[in-house]
Amino acid sequence: MKAALLLALFASSTFATTNLYIVEVADASDIPAKRHGSQPHERLYRSLQERKISFDVQKEYNSPGIFLGASISLNDVANVLSADGVVAIRPVHTYSSPKPVSFKVVSPGDPALPDSESTHILTGVDKLHEQAIIGKGVKIGIIDTGIDYTHPSLGGGFGPGFKVAGGYDFVGDNYNGHGRSYHGRFDHNSSSRSGTLVGGIIGANPGNPFNISGVAYGAELWAYRVVSCFGSVTDDIVIDALLMSVKDGMNVLSLSLGQSSGWTEGTTAVVASRIAATGKIVAIAAGNDASSTGSWFTSTPGNAINAISVASSDNTVVPQTDGTPDIPAPSGGLVSSFSSYGPTYDMYFKPSITAPGGNILTTLPVPLGSWGVASGVREQILRTSMSAPFMAGSAALLFQVKGKSASTAAQQGAGLVQPYAAIFTSTVITPAELLLNDTTHFAGPQKITIKNVGKTVQSYTLSHVPAGTAVTLSPGTIDPTMSRVPLAATYATVTFNMAEFTLGPGQAQQVVATISPPQGLDPSTLPVYSGFIYATSGNDSVHATYLGVAAPLRNAQVLDDTDSIFGFNLPVILDPNGNPQNTPTNYTFVGGNAPTVLWRQVFGTPLLRLDLVAANIVLNATISARAVPLLSFSNSHNGGTFAQVPTIGPLLEMDFLGRNDQFATRDRTFLLSNIFANGTVIPDGSYKILLRALKVTGDPKNEADYESWLSPIVGIAA
Ligand SMILES: *[C@@H]1O[C@H](CO)[C@@H](O)[C@H](O)[C@H]1NC(C)=O
Ligand SMILES: *[C@@H]1O[C@H](CO)[C@@H](O)[C@H](O)[C@H]1NC(C)=O
Ligand SMILES: *[C@@H]1O[C@H](CO)[C@@H](O)[C@H](O)[C@H]1NC(C)=O
Ligand SMILES: *[C@@H]1O[C@H](CO)[C@@H](O)[C@H](O)[C@H]1NC(C)=O
Ligand SMILES: *[C@@H]1O[C@H](CO)[C@@H](O)[C@H](O)[C@H]1NC(C)=O
Ligand SMILES: *[C@@H]1O[C@H](CO)[C@@H](O)[C@H](O)[C@H]1NC(C)=O
Ligand SMILES: *[C@@H]1O[C@H](CO)[C@@H](O)[C@H](O)[C@H]1NC(C)=O
């Protein structure tokens, strides 16, 4: 009974939907004076038992150096943090599977066919293929729905010697995102639509009736199936797949899944980032929802700090898929503006790069028709699902030529992926991204290193090319601006300590670029500015991309305190009929007689808490509960403080929540039960509920860094 109501949240929020958590533990060697023979997992379980915490282990992760821990269902999260060796506890997130793919089955000679190799020509992949640079010797893991390896252009078989040389099925056909996963042999084929589209973009063999080829058709593909025939996938399974792919020796990983977040946190993102830091390339769909959501909304795990989050550009040619006239695509070949989607709340540059992702001719599972054009300019998820494998294939080409640890050169700053240029450039600029942060944490002076990796002496000139400054919030409101995010014609300025120099082959020069944010903009609109620093020598030109926000992020409002979506002010307590509770009300918690806390976030928060507090608490909340008569009941309960506020006990604590979009159905609710977050029953009495959201960059220990709201009196009469 007690667990059932603990996290009863609406399904589409970014919250955990079960009481499943991923607990990360320290390596045994990290802990001095460890007990003899104590292994990290055993130590954790023993410590939980000593604390009388009931738990059920679902999966164990044992990849020293990358991730040690377990996915565990438990109720008492707060008590686990202090258990032996625990490094982090993160709720399990559910990711949407690659959205139902809209595609048109095609046959040779079909007038709807796009130019067979247009995306390869756009990026120089065709020229690399001519030089037999096809990803030979590189292993690419595809974490998706599986691949129809019976497809003749995908090798026609499975196992050593075949194109699809290995893999694993973590879910079977019937797993629906809940419960234990099925560990099966990799043998399915008809449900593998998304993975087969991805597999063809990376690896389709030439010599097919359509005269197309995958970006890296010489690479080995390994299929890790994490999505069943029905829908979603959870962190615990994706992490399993990520860790197995590393043990299998993958050099490159492609993931086309995600959930909007805006944060670089989340267990899958953390694991993906650590894998990328070991020199592998992890390409993940940016999952852009730009058309309906605006900025600060990129997906996790694509936000993983070291992963490459891939946005989509359209193919240069739009095929005639729906009986429409064959138009060059208006956006064809254009680099999508990053400003519509990112950055992250901690000011990382996501999406990191753009690759072709729309209107791509690729393989379909044989039972579904073998070949199709993944189409539809509005299907944003689909498009980034198709661009991540393009990036993964491009990385494999680079690895074939430069060796399998050349990952720094793979990402030449923002822009369209250019594997040909990345391989044949005679200049390398590092870092490729200059992260300037907000005005409080401003990192204006940036050290940049330019290296001549060519065979001749080169004379370089540095220059600055500003890009757009995105106005990410509507002036005078707390609402995000929607796509296309408006741009201000005010730019950063840059000075160099040295703007011209000459380098012999193998020589490098470090320079300092001092970047000043654009002036005269309204900081309350959170203007995100960006631009490029170019190092040019003759026709050789490389760039680093800078990104910053001309405002202190701490000032951005997190909680919606308006009535714009619901017609009554938020946050609010809803009674069992869904009406705002305006006067003190007692609840029995029987037969659905329970209150619900409803709130919306217009910006991300690193920490959100609901605490039970005394009905007579003295507290100046930042958001006042309007139209609520101020009655106070005396109350004898007492216990603890949080950020200097006396609290009785925590009801809910969530970290790294992204903002809501504009759809009321996805707003955040918490159905109260008469239990604390640790499962202990709350004594009958009169209380209030304190909602607090920490501001971005805020100090969790500083009360002034929270927005807060205090509910009307909620009586527990269970
Ligand atoms: C899956 O592939 C096998 C051959 O490997 C075939 O016998 C079977 O019919 C296929 N199943 C479906 C549902 O297409
Ligand atoms: C296939 O494409 C290549 C270039 O990408 C071209 O040279 C060749 O003629 C094409 N073949 C057919 C049958 O279209
Ligand atoms: C920006 O500053 C915040 C606050 O110190 C920090 O948490 C974040 O990691 C910084 N971002 C970058 C990209 O350095
Ligand atoms: C740069 O120019 C030289 C001759 O001026 C040419 O040989 C070379 O191919 C060019 N490089 C690129 C990358 O276009
Ligand atoms: C709620 O219950 C308490 C305790 O029984 C009682 O004193 C109080 O009057 C009740 N409040 C309301 C609004 O019914
Ligand atoms: C609440 O605000 C009032 C007016 O600003 C102030 O006098 C009072 O001390 C504050 N109370 C607390 C508990 O901070
Ligand atoms: C659970 O939390 C409440 C409120 O903080 C506390 O009073 C109670 O002792 C806790 N129960 C356990 C078993 O730790």
UniProtKB/TrEMBL annotation:
<keyword id="KW-0720">Serine protease</keyword>
<feature type="domain" description="Peptidase S8/S53">
    <location>
        <begin position="135"/>
        <end position="404"/>
    </location>
</feature>
<dbReference type="InterPro" id="IPR000209">
    <property type="entry name" value="Peptidase_S8/S53_dom"/>
</dbReference>
<protein>
    <submittedName>
        <fullName>Peptidase S8/S53 domain-containing protein</fullName>
    </submittedName>
</protein>
<dbReference type="InterPro" id="IPR015500">
    <property type="entry name" value="Peptidase_S8_subtilisin-rel"/>
</dbReference>
<keyword id="KW-0378">Hydrolase</keyword>
<dbReference type="Pfam" id="PF00082">
    <property type="entry name" value="Peptidase_S8"/>
</dbReference>
<dbReference type="Pfam" id="PF06280">
    <property type="entry name" value="fn3_5"/>
</dbReference>
<keyword id="KW-0645">Protease</keyword>
<keyword id="KW-0732">Signal</keyword>
<dbReference type="InterPro" id="IPR051048">
    <property type="entry name" value="Peptidase_S8/S53_subtilisin"/>
</dbReference>
<dbReference type="GO" id="GO:0016020">
    <property type="term" value="C:membrane"/>
</dbReference>
<dbReference type="InterPro" id="IPR023827">
    <property type="entry name" value="Peptidase_S8_Asp-AS"/>
</dbReference>
<feature type="signal peptide">
    <location>
        <begin position="1"/>
        <end position="16"/>
    </location>
</feature>
<dbReference type="InterPro" id="IPR010435">
    <property type="entry name" value="C5a/SBT2-like_Fn3"/>
</dbReference>
<dbReference type="GO" id="GO:0004252">
    <property type="term" value="F:serine-type endopeptidase activity"/>
</dbReference>
<comment type="similarity">
    <text>Belongs to the peptidase S8 family.</text>
</comment>
<dbReference type="InterPro" id="IPR036852">
    <property type="entry name" value="Peptidase_S8/S53_dom_sf"/>
</dbReference>
<dbReference type="GO" id="GO:0006508">
    <property type="term" value="P:proteolysis"/>
</dbReference>
<feature type="domain" description="C5a peptidase/Subtilisin-like protease SBT2-like Fn3-like">
    <location>
        <begin position="436"/>
        <end position="541"/>
    </location>
</feature>
<dbReference type="InterPro" id="IPR034187">
    <property type="entry name" value="Peptidases_S8_5"/>
</dbReference>
